[in-house]
Design brief:
Elements lengths: L1 H11 L6 H13 L9 E4 L5 H8 L4 E5 L2 H12 L7 E5 L5 H8 L7 E3 L2 E3 L29 H5 L8 E5 L5 H11 L5 E5 L7 H7 L2 E9 L2 E8 L5
Parallel strand pairs: 1-2, 1-6, 2-3, 6-7
Antiparallel strand pairs: 4-5, 7-9, 8-9
Length: 233
C-alpha cells in the first residue's frame, strides 16, 4: 500500500485520515448515541477504504465512493481480505449527484464555482482574485457526475444514508455541504475534518440551513458534525 500511496497519493492529492483517531471518534459517537450501529455510513472520497473498514469493524454498514481508479481498486482488494459482518462496499466514480451538477451548471446552486484558480460567484466569502493554481477548476475537483452512477453501483441512494464522512480540502467543502443540505434525509449527520475551512464558514452554514458542532479530533484537526436546521431550498 505504501508504494501505491507514494505514486497515486502524489498524483491525486489524497492524504489518508488516521484510522485510530476515526475508531476513537466512532466509539465516542456510538456511546453518546449520536450515531447507531445500524446506521449506514457513506464516505465521500474514500481513498483505499481504510476508514470504511474501521467503521465496518464497529458493525456500522459502510459504503464509499472514490474518484481515482487505482485507489478504489486497491481499496476493494483490501476490503475483500477482511472478515467483516456488515456490508462494506467501495465503488469508483464521482460522489456528486447528477441532479446537483445539473443545477450547478444552470447557476442554481449556492456553492462557488472554481475557474482558473479562483472562486467565482461565491456568496459565502469575498471574491478571490489571487489564483491558487491554474489547474484549480470544477473539472479538476471532480465536480461532475460520472457514468455509471456510483449510487446505482452501491445499491443505495444518497438520500438513504444516515451518516456521511469526508476528509476534504477546504475549497471543496461548500459544494459537498450544499449537496448534503439539499439531498440527504433530514436526520442524517455529516462528519468532516479538514485543516482548512472557507472564509466566513459560519455564515455559509446559516445560508444553507446547517448547524455545526465539534465532536472530536482527527489528524490533529477538529472533527465537525453538521446537521440540518432549516429548509432553505
Amino acid at each position: 500500500m505504501s508504494d501505491l500511496f507514494a505514486k497515486e497519493g502524489t498524483e491525486t492529492g489524497f492524504a489518508p485520515s488516521d484510522a485510530d483517531d476515526f475508531a476513537s471518534c466512532l466509539t465516542d459517537l456510538l456511546h453518546r448515541k449520536i450515531i447507531a450501529e445500524d446506521d449506514s455510513l457513506l464516505e465521500l472520497g474514500a481513498g483505499f477504504g481504510h476508514l470504511m473498514i474501521t467503521a465496518a469493524r464497529a458493525r456500522i454498514p459502510s459504503y464509499g465512493i472514490e474518484y481515482h481508479p487505482g485507489l478504489a481498486a486497491r481499496g476493494r482488494i483490501d476490503i475483500r481480505r477482511q472478515e467483516l459482518f456488515v456490508p462494506c462496499k467501495l465503488v469508483q466514480g464521482s460522489y456528486y449527484l447528477a441532479e446537483y451538477i445539473r443545477l450547478r451548471q444552470q447557476g442554481q446552486t449556492r456553492a462557488p464555482f472554481f475557474e482558473h484558480g479562483a472562486f467565482v460567484d461565491n456568496p459565502f466569502s469575498p471574491r478571490i482574485t489571487t489564483p491558487f493554481s491554474d489547474d484549480l477548476t470544477d473539472h479538476v475537483y471532480h465536480l461532475e457526475a460520472t457514468i455509471p452512477d456510483p449510487y446505482s453501483l452501491l445499491g443505495i441512494g444518497f438520500h438513504k444514508f444516515d451518516v456521511f464522512f469526508s476528509y476534504t480540502w477546504g475549497i471543496e467543502l461548500p459544494s459537498i455541504l450544499e449537496q448534503y443540505a439539499r439531498y440527504a434525509q433530514e436526520d442524517a449527520i455529516f462528519l468532516n475534518h479538514s485543516a482548512f475551512y472557507p472564509v466566513e464558514h459560519k455564515r455559509m452554514l446559516k445560508d444553507i440551513g446547517l448547524s455545526c458542532t465539534v465532536e472530536g479530533k482527527m489528524n490533529g484537526n477538529p472533527l465537525l458534525a453538521y446537521t440540518k436546521q432549516t429548509q432553505p431550498f
